[in-house]
Design brief:
Elements lengths: L1 H8 L5 H27 L6 H14 L10 H26 L7 H32 L4 E6 L3 H12 L5 E7 L4 H4 L7 E3 L4 H8 L3 E4 L6 H10 L6 E4 L12 E5 L2 E5 L8 H35 L5 E7 L5 E7 L23 H8 L7 H7 L3 E3 L6 H7 L15 E3 L14 H17 L2 H15 L7
Parallel strand pairs: 1-2, 1-4, 2-3, 4-5, 10-11
Antiparallel strand pairs: 6-7, 8-9
């Protein structure tokens, strides 16, 4: 107990603890503060009903988003999306249970309307305040990097450019001379590896980052043995991180640590969230668009002979072949080993087909694919099997996009890569956005893509 109390009195030595705690609790706390502040403004008595609502809102918004290092436009977007998600869940629960009747409607909608601005302002204040708190306290930690190489240089750059890390970078240790390293005169090269342990003890270094090649394992083991006589925290940055990680993280297999280099973002609980999101939204959307489906089906039927719904072979999750539905927009239904991609003014496209392609109405039957579990609402767009076989040979990492189910819309489509990809460069950019989606997936990102898709479809003329 005394040791625990002593630790609580010790000045904060972990910079990540300060910024991490702020990022974890900022959103939930501001959600509650805004609710209770409005209750006071509306002359409401803060009783058990408000306490329960505050606890529910806190649990739904906990933990907060890590936004301190992101652009302010991204902070504004996330504040808006998170408020929409929170409001939607609370209103649905309130309507289903009748609990919303205990609160004035004006108060609830004022809360939801003001919350995005409150969250945005609180994040702006946090990114202004935290660096000053770190600089005036013992929250800043000192660090050295072993290995003057690409990984070490990236680490030092992160320390210098991210003021919220609160890391004071002291320099590098490497057995090679400055001449062999081609290091500039102002590069902080502190000495050889055999001088590291003594330097750490003398200068009370808090953290050591080992950015040494994995081929030097005996040297690393010897170095770790020398560092046992220090109190510094030691982190190993293996050189596998030179590659572009997709959902990189550490796991264990029977207690043995392993590092995920390329994996799906929808493992475990995330997979459940994604599937529930697809089911609920697909059912709601299909109910809303059922009259449109009927009208488009009649239009396709009258436009030219052939089936109303076109079934095409595509690659789905893990590269397995699936059947995808679309309203037929062409006079032909190419689905063989060679599929000619549609181009502008393509003679195969019917006049009605051109309209439904431009407005993306031809994609609507794919919501049935989503309910079947073959697709998701948001994800990398599926390409014809023939196109997959062509581009997988030309574009590095092409097949990684199949670590998730294909989507009706995706991050590439809302960033300008919708419609024809007549060059390899355009397909390359589409794949880059697909992989960025895999790295950064969240329910909020899915919601933002859906909103942007709805706004773009009305005015976008790149699809045909």
């Amino acid at each position: 107990m005394l040791a625990r109390l002593e630790a609580q009195r010790t000045p904060l030595k972990n910079n990540a603890t300060l910024s991490g705690m702020v990022e974890t609790f900022l959103d939930p706390v501001m959600v509650i503060v805004t609710l209770l502040g409005l209750a006071i403004a509306f002359d409401e008595k803060i009783d058990g009903d408000y306490v329960i609502l505050a606890l529910i809102a806190f649990s739904l918004s906990f933990p907060g988003n890590s936004l301190l290092s992101d652009p302010m436009r991204f902070v504004a977007r996330e504040s808006f999306l998170n408020t929409m998600i929170l409001a939607g869940i609370l209103l649905l629960l309130g309507y289903a249970t009748g609990y919303s009747a205990y609160f004035p409607t004006e108060l609830l909608f004022t809360w939801f309307a003001s919350l995005p601005f409150v969250l945005f302002a609180s994040h702006a204040a946090a990114r202004f305040t935290i660096p000053r708190v770190i600089s005036m306290s013992d929250a800043e930690v000192s660090a050295v990097v072993c290995g003057f190489n690409d990984i070490g240089a990236q680490l030092s750059s992160h320390f210098s450019n991210n003021k919220f890390l609160g890391v004071k970078f002291l320099g590098f240790f490497d057995d090679r001379s400055r001449e062999r390293l081609a290091a500039s005169e102002d590069a902080p090269l502190l000495g050889a590896l055999n001088q590291l342990a003594q330097y750490v003890k003398t200068h009370h270094v808090d953290r050591i980052y080992l950015a040494l090649p994995m081929a030097t394992q005996p040297r690393i083991l010897a170095l770790l043995d020398e560092l046992k006589d220090t109190t510094a925290s030691i982190y190993f940055v293996p050189d596998i991180f030179v590659t572009d990680l997709i959902q990189g993280r550490t796991e264990s297999v029977g207690g043995m640590p392993v590092v995920a280099v390329c994996d799906t973002p929808f493992s475990g609980f995330n997979g459940i969230v994604k599937r529930m999101e697809d089911i609920v939204l697909s059912i709601l959307i299909l109910m809303l668009i059922s009259p449109i489906l009927l009208v488009v089906a009649i239009g396709v039927w009258r436009s030219s002979p052939g089936p109303i719904v076109f079934k095409q072979r595509r690659y789905g999750l893990d590269g397995k072949e699936i059947t995808v539905y679309k309203f037929r927009s062409m006079t032909t239904t190419d689905n063989g080993a060679v599929v000619k991609q549609a181009t502008r003014n393509d003679q195969r496209i019917t006049p009605f087909g051109a309209y439904i392609r431009k407005t993306s109405l031809d994609e609507l039957p794919q919501f049935i694919n989503v309910l079947q579990g073959r697709m998701s609402i948001v994800g990398p767009r599926p390409h014809a099997v023939a196109h997959n076989e062509q581009y997988r040979k030309l574009i590095k990492g092409y097949m990684v996009r199949h670590k998730v189910k294909p989507g009706i819309t995706g991050w590439a489509q809302v960033n300008g890569y919708r419609g024809e990809t007549e060059t390899v460069d355009k397909m390359q950019k589409r794949i880059e956005y697909d992989l960025e989606y895999l790295r950064n997936w969240s329910p909020g990102l899915d919601l933002w893509i859906i909103i942007k898709t709805a706004l773009l479809v009305a005015k976008d003329d790149t699809a045909f």
